[in-house]
Input
Amino acid sequence: MDILSLFVVIPVLTITAILFLKDTRQVRLVSAFGMGLQLLMAALLVFLYLTARHAGNSDEMLFIRDYLWFKSLNIHYAVGVDGISVAMIALTSLVVFAGIFASWEVEFLRKEFFISLILLATGVFGFFISIDLFTMFLFYELAVIPMYLLIGIWGSGPKEYSAMKLTIMLMGGSALLLVGLLGIYFNSSPDATKLTFNILEISKVVIPLPAQRIFFPLTFLGFGVLGALFPFHTWSPDGHASAPTAVSMLHAGVLMKLGGYGAFRVAIFLMPEAAHELSWIFIILTSISVVYGAFGAIAQKDLKYINAYSSVSHCGLVLFAVLMMNQTAMNGAIIQMISHGLMTALFFALIGMLYGRTHTRLINEMGGLMKVIPFLSVCYVIAGLASLGLPGLSGFVAEMTIFVGAFQHHELFYRIVTIMAVSSIVITAVYILRVIAILLLGPTTNEHFEHLPDAKWFEKISVITLIGAVAAIGLVPFWLSTMIGTSLHPIINKILALNPF
Amino acid sequence: MNSGIPLQYFLILATVMFFTGVYGFLTRRNLITILMSVELILNSVNINFLAFNRYLYPHKLEGMFFSVFVIAVAASEAAVAIAIIINIYRRFTTINVEDVNEMKF
Amino acid sequence: MSLGTFLIMRHELLLITAALLVLIAELFWNPEKKKGISHFSLILFGVITIIGFLPSPEGSIFGGMYVSSGTRLLMKNILNIGTLIVFIQSIGWLKKEENVEKVSEYFLLLISTLVGMNFMISAGHFLIFYIGIELAIIPIAALAAYDRYKNKSAEAGIKLILSSALSSGILLYGISMIYGTTGTLYFNEVAALFGNTNLQILGFIFFFAGMAFKISIVPFHLWTADVYEGSPVNITSYLSVISKGASVFILMIILFTVFPVIIATWQKTIFVVSVLTMTIGNLFAIRQQNLKRFLAFSSISQAGYILLGMIGGNQLGMASIIYYILVYVFSNLGAFGVVAAISNAKGKENIDDYNGLYHTNPKLSLVMTLALFSLAGIPPVAGFFGKFFLFTAAAQKGFYLLVFIAVLNTIISLYYYLLVVKAMFISKSDTPIESFKSDISTRIALGICIAGIVLTGFASIIFEVIRNLSFGV
Amino acid sequence: MINFSYTIWILILPFFMFLLLGLAGHKLFKAKLSGLLGTGGLGIITILSYITAYRYFFVTGKIEGAFQKITAVNITWLQFTDKLHIDMGVLLDPISVMMLVVITTVSLMVHIYSLGYMKGEKGFERFFSFLSLFSFSMLGLVLATNIFQMYIFWELVGVSSFLLIGFYYQKPSAVRASKKAFIVTRFADLGFLIGILILSFNTKTFDFITLTNPTGTAILQGTGIGFLGLSIMTWSMIFVFMGGVGKSAMFPFHIWLPDAMEGPTPVSALIHAATMVVAGVYLVARMFPIYAISAPVALHVVAYVGAFSSLFAAIIACTQTDIKRVLAYSTMSQIGMMMCALGVASYGGEEGLGYMASMFHLFTHAMFKALLFLGAGAIIHAVHSNYMTDMGGLRKYLPITHITFLIACLTIAGIPPFSAFFSKDEILTAAFHSNKILFGVEYAVAGLTAFYMFRLYFNIFWGKDTQYHHTPHEAPATMTIPLILLAIASLFTGFIPFNKLVTSDSKVLESGLEMMIAIPSVLIGLLGIGIAYVMYRKETSIPDRLATTFKYGYKWAYNKFYIDELYLFVTKKIIFRYIAQPVAWFDRHIVDGTMNAIATVTQVISFRIRGFQSGQLQKYAFVFITGVIMLAIFFIYLWK
Output
């Protein structure tokens, strides 16, 4: 058993263990144990990875394991990681770990809840370790489906509608994706003798440009739907609003990152020519996402909607940066994924906790919570500051890397669009501060809120884990940035070699 | 040719019979009549087979045999169909095809 | 030609023997003993299924009218497995008061149809093919009308028999034209002599329409829903899985071996009808309340997906179709098994009735969910792999547009499958189906289905075996 | 060469204090202890700063007659590209060392003062933790080695300002003010960021030393390429200046500053008078070689914005009654003067006088403005009101405050020998030699300043004898000691030879008092004081009559020329109502509506076509036959 497969095996074992539990009270302990183990594994992976790199291992991917699965189609179960996937895995394990604690008090069908949650995590982990397009796609879909049950059963509000919409739209994305992947597969070998799904092998050949022109948009849009690309983002506000806390966390924090990661790893990496040629279309869409999402967030009243639109904006930035196709911007995109993953998970965790106390998510029904529940409120402020890009927290590092990188683009059009995207930081500040001001500051408006309890121990674990990560990235971004940056080299070199700028 | 009647005539006859059968199938309301229309269709096929065999490929008897089997199968089909029609009559007290539509949409 | 060469027909012979044994038992056993007739048939059939997997000689007899090959044997074995599951599922249902008298009929007729299907699959000549196809469908019409005291059952029977008679007529008309233009009915000879004349294409289209009826491809599908709804659940599942599977197999064999000359024509035909089939099937399925009817339309759209494997005319396509049918056997029988269990126990067949089922019958709900996910093509269950291979097969020949339409259609289908999931897991009900314990046979059958659904996908060996056998027709 | 690497502790220490007090303050320490900890920490930093200043200015800083830029520490914090990377470090040069002294001095005074002023307030340790955060950020800002580090700390001072303005978070007005401050400056920072991006795109560096090397190549990048008639470099510098405009509360981004007075008074003294608001001036000074050499047009913008703001604010200040607001406008006005002085300067030699004057004034202004605010704090502390209408005759009750306040007022009015006399004189001289219009404006501002400050002074300490509920009493020693110290500073800082220490090209600049300028400037100061004396020494009706005479002018000035309302209109009405809400509506109804419509259409089609499934066997057969015929026609005749 190799270390990477453990990331799929551990959740599966956890699920199996939960299945055989009789006592539902132990379910969450087992889940926490499993996911805690996963977190440790992630830490170990980071360590092993850095050690290997330090020792001079300069392969594109490390810890590669390759098992032939379907021989006739040359489908493999192939895993491998570079700095980017390692970072994403670390992010995922953090968010999942925090998510388990954030859903500590789920009562209804507890067993099923944790099983679905961990199943979702399994899909995400699997996606990030895969270097075979088939398994990647398999895990991608595996991650989407538990969402339906999670939102549908444990959600709130118009949960059935939201769950259905989310699932259908994401599956719509995967429909585009599937066609794109098949297109890549059948063009993965110049003489059609050795077709492969393996990303590393495909990256060594040049897919014919006419094929790229068809399959790049499909693949990119396919992943873009999951990355909340305008105008395919509308599953996100409804889905997030209806989802239970941990699910929102995982979904916004991790699942949406599948989109950005895939767009980068599959669409752009494998089809750089078409990406270069067509990027302007998607740049326009993504910059609309960025600004539009931010404006959308200003007018919302529901906390989760605000955060959902904010996610649209931030995830738009990820795709935006990826499309800039230079080292710095892509580096920023990855950091932004991680940063946004942590931040938004933190946000959703806090919103869930606030909702659990006040039983409302409408900001104008709340007020002055800072006095009553200082711990949660301060955490909310920190999350907000991270989200609006305060230096010292992760958001700043990510956004600045993106902006600086994007602005290095040699074409004027891209630089002008970058300035448009940059303007989102002000709008972000507006809606974040609006929420903080209405929600937390000022006098306490409702006497029912006077005696709300502050965070419990499990809530603190959840929140502090995330804040710690956000601050760590924000304060010492160098190692993360370098880890990602070195992994980007082969990708950038490929792009540069093909498109002499 | 070993017969005075050209092949085309048989084929035209078969076609006419076929479409008569189809027309009957589509328009007759009585289930038994519909069954008879089906027989018309099958027999038009038989004529086709026989005519082709006789006129074009006289040294092999595939067409002949085929039509024999078609007749046999048609008979069994009719038997089952009539059994069911009897059951229909018991249940619906009618064999008008339009009344047999409990299930739709 | 020694007697031994008849062993090439081992599947058919065994089945005929079985049918005869059941008949003899029915005739000569005393009423007391007759209660065991269902178990007797079951064991008999189980043995046959196992024997079917033993190595068997390949070749052809009757001057090439009957062909046996690895692929065809595999197809027959798949059908055997499916039938076995149907048999196991129906044990409980056959114990019911109104069915006790007709147990042997049930087995007799089903085994007969299976004989027909086996002949059909092994056909090397249109005559055998025709006899097989009629043998396969006529007894089912009788079975559809099995519930003598139900209006719907009788209606299903008459609709099936008359529609199929019409389709047979048209099929035969097509065959007669093929015969007229080529002068032979042997598959290999027809393939060699087939041209591209208008009459031949007309003949082909008539033939195709007749076959499309059996697979219930739009616009030849309209009988499907009514017959599925009216027939007893077990018959419906047999009809939707085994009968359809057999027809798909033979259509594929004939398209690939008899009509390769006009591949351009039938590719276009399949393109059009598969788009129609998927879309119309899905659009109808969205609105259905009765689960049997719902599954009927779902199976129509499944037929549309299956056509994607055929369109390429490639080895991968053949392999993926056989594989998909195998997966489909498990998935659809799983779904029907649950419907049958609940229908037999509680008489409820509507989606609304399933509200809150998970809270009362979690295991059944899980089986149903897995089966539906498999039908929808959601990983990690086998349906995902099946669909993926089908689409790959179509994409290999460049039918990306078709693949795209198909994938969009899978989304619609996911929508309505999720409606059922929603009913079971999410919706609340004041009068949920009470918790009940289904009988042992149902549980065994569902267990086999689940094992199949889960394992067929992961165990790549299955697909590889199929792949290696394909094109060996 | 002395090793300056210990200066990193100037940054680390306050950050550590912030974390310590912020995370564990309310648990580990008693309130008083945390205050002392914070103050003590800052005391150490102050000493370190003084040592650094001494060593820099008098021991090693100078090489070949010019002060060197010394990079004491530089650590790569984030790598963008090979050339572009954010470093965290300490850059010592005359202005940063001067700022170091200013910040630590004022900050220390404010810390000590706060020990008394904030005594007993809830969240005492939080206050000190925020103060530490601010000190950290501000020091980081001035010591930045590269423009991006500066931007980082620029944002951090913004947020600490936000936190401190909103310190009384239960007070809606404070919350509003903090929000406003943050968003307005954030908007300005957007310009700063864009400026940085453009600048770095052209020069491929963030590093100040490389950027501002007057003989280097970076400074010449992008000067030729034009956009709307201005070079790219000019544009980038205008954008960078936009950040300065926001932070320094120049017109039109000044609106947040008066509202920021909602914060505790020591905060106003520290952040919104002495240190943070001059960051804009510091920024321009830091980039001065670029402005002067590559982007003179941008420098003109600086000059005119500064001059206009100073006049604009001075006029408003004459009408306000909230003493802290008067001081706020006064701050804005003074900073405008500094900006103007920078704007009229050019690089090197005699023409660089404005630069020196600006820095000089920055220095003196920090002292006397902090003094004014702290004095105002003492007054408010005693009277429990911000409005001068509630005050009068306080000289009897608050003797120390009175004297120190008077010193501060005389200083700002430019009366010799107080410090601002010298610095303001330099500014006027620089303006006079460069641009007569600007000189006129600044001259008028000098008069107005004297007027409104003494209006304030007379209203508070003289004027009517107001009856107080509680007899006002002098503040405790923790508050008065800083007052006295700062008063001394105001008295004597004017004699520091800035022309030898802080100049545009770091070389000694020969300059002296020009009597041509000095005498009229003193005269107009005295004139202002005189008018104020007449009008406000005793309770008279002159102000009211004047107000009615210049009814509209007064009303406009009193309402701050309705800039706030304009902003409100733009943000609430235009952005919120006509952009954000329509976007939200569009999203819900058009984009989402389309998605839903697809689903609905599918359902509708599904319903419409159900007629095919009529249940009629013969209709089925009809469809069947039609299908066959259609296929036949299709494939035989159309698509063969």
User: Anything to note?
Assistant: The mean pLDDT of chain C is 89. Strands of chain C lie at 59-61, 66-68. The radius of gyration of chain C is 21 Å.
